[in-house]
Structure formats: C-alpha cells, structure tokens
Specification:
With 363 residues, the protein is an all-alpha fold. 69% of the residues lie in helices and 0% in strands. It contains 14 helices and no strands. The longest helix has 54 residues. The chain is globular and about 65 Å long.
Amino acid sequence: MIIDTTEVQDINSFSRLESLKEVSGIIWMIVLILSLVLGITIGVLVIVWLEREISAGIQQRIGPEYAGPLGILQALADGTKLIFKENLLPSRGDTRLFSIGPSIAVISILLSYSVIPFSYRLVLSDLNIGVFLWIAVSSIAPIGLLMSGYGSNNKYSFLGGLRAAAQSISYEIPLTLCVLSISLLSNSLSTVDIVEAQSKYGLWGWNLWRQPMGFLVFLISSLAECERLPFDLPEAEEELVAGYQTEYSGIKFGLFYVASYLNLLVSSLFVTVLYLGGWNISIPYIFIPGLFEINKVGRVFGTTVGIFITLAKTYLFLFISITTRWTLPRLRMDQLLNLGWKFLLPISLGNLLLTTSSQLLSL
C-alpha cells in the first residue's frame, strides 16, 4: 500500500489547525468568564456604595466619605476586613453543611449571569431555555440557606432557613408565571429573542406596556426572592438575631452578603431584559430611525452603547429597590405568605390566561 506524503502532511496540518481552534475557543471562553466575573464584582461594589449613599440621603445622614473619593472604596475595605477575620465553626453543628451552604448560595446565583445579554451578541450562553434556566438555578439558593440554618445547630438559624425556603416557594410560582407570559408574547424562551421582540417600536415596544400587571407581580416577587425589605423575614433581626447568618463570621458571612447583592443585580438585569427592552435605545422608531441601525455601524461601538443602556435601566430599577428598602416597614410572616398565595398567584395566573387567550385570538 502506497501512502502519499503530501496527503499525510495535509492531514497533520488540518489536525493541528483544529486543535489550535479548540484551544483558542477554550481560552476565549475563559476570558469571557473572567471578564463577566470582574464586571459583576465591580457592579456589586457600586451597588453597596449606592445603597449607603441613598440610605444616608433618605435618613439625612452623611454616609461613607473617608474611604476613597466620596467613600467609593468603603465596600472594598469591608470585604478586605471580612477576609482577614477569624472563621468560626459551631462546636455541635454539622461543619460540612455549615461550610457548603454559603458556596451553594453564591454559585447558584453566579450561574444565572450566563444567560443575560448585556448588549447585542454579548451573552455568555444564548440558550433556548434561558429564562427557565435562571428560574431553575436560582431556586437552588434557598437550599444553601436551609443547609446553613440546619448546620448551625441554632434555633434562630434554623427558623431563618425554613423561612427562606417557604418564602422562595411562595414567590417563585408567580414569578415563573410572569416569565411564561413574556415567553408567550415573544414566542421564545431565549433572553436574546425576548429583547429582539421588543426592539421594533423603541419605548412603545417594551413588554412593560403589554404586561403591566405582570410587571408589578414580577417586581414584587423579585424583591421577595432577593429577601429585601419589606420581605427580609429570613434574617429579621428583631426576631431571629440574624436568621441563617447568626453563627457565621469572616469570609463565609461575606459570601452571604455578596450573594444578596448578586441576587439583587441579577433580578434587576432580568427586569431590564424581560420588560424594559434590554440593550435597545428607548426612542420610538419613527423619530430617529438611524439610531436603530447602531448595531450595524461598528461592533465595538454598538456593544459599548448597548452595555451602557442595559446598565442604565438596571440601576434605575436598583434605585427603586434601594428606596423601597428604606421606606417600607417589614411584613409579618403570615402577611408575606398571604400576599404570595392569595394575591400574587391568582393575579399572575389570570395574567397568563389573558395572554394565552390574546395570542390564540391573534393567530
């Protein structure tokens, strides 16, 4: 059998080219993941600073001002302090559950960022079931809180973990029904397709105008999922000391602290994607049609503008969430569950039935 040497060389060069492509693809994915983690970290630091400044303004205080210009480095100083603090373990608790709980809470929320489109074609993973992946992954976080409460061997911590699980179940169902209504309007579960479906008419194409009741239910449910006031029953300091965080110190407590702000940021991003048009410019098409070709002008310029628009809408919702925290009083546990099961669930179900009916009639 005679083998042509040129064919062997071509096969070897092709295999080397394919291996180089695989390596470059892996490197590019790692770069994207690290960039996303860096951006999320900076976003969390900005949220912490904004909350302290806004709360100081509401309560007529000065707020942070010494750590860096305008106190911008205060959150970084707090994080550094928590890293170097002693990590205590309960003597009679389950140390494995106690240690794994904070990690589960943070990792489950970080995975949600993989399906969020920050700009045109700037998404880590454009999945066909993107929004349901977020709901499925975010539902794992309360398991980490329950593990933390049980592993602490403390009645206050355990009650806080049970409250977190009950609250998550109560408000995930209305939230899922609202997401399903949006998916029916957009004929897709992909976050990119949902944003594209709102891009035709600018401001008037937002799902906010087509789903006003769904938007309100989603807003309330997302605040409850983030365990923010007036829904922070799992860590109510007047009743449970600090809830599931009672026995934690050092970096483990810092992970819970970061997880709460990560959850708030991802909820705000999904409000932007599902209801506020995502990265699209919020100007009606008939006024300035040239702006809607911005993605075709230049990839870098269009991506930068898209990221800026997405973050501007996101931080507008964050301002509303922070203001709500420092304005409204905390609910009782029975009021919290009644709001979820007796009001939000029927409203979201009725909204889904109306949306389904309108979609069937429009066929």
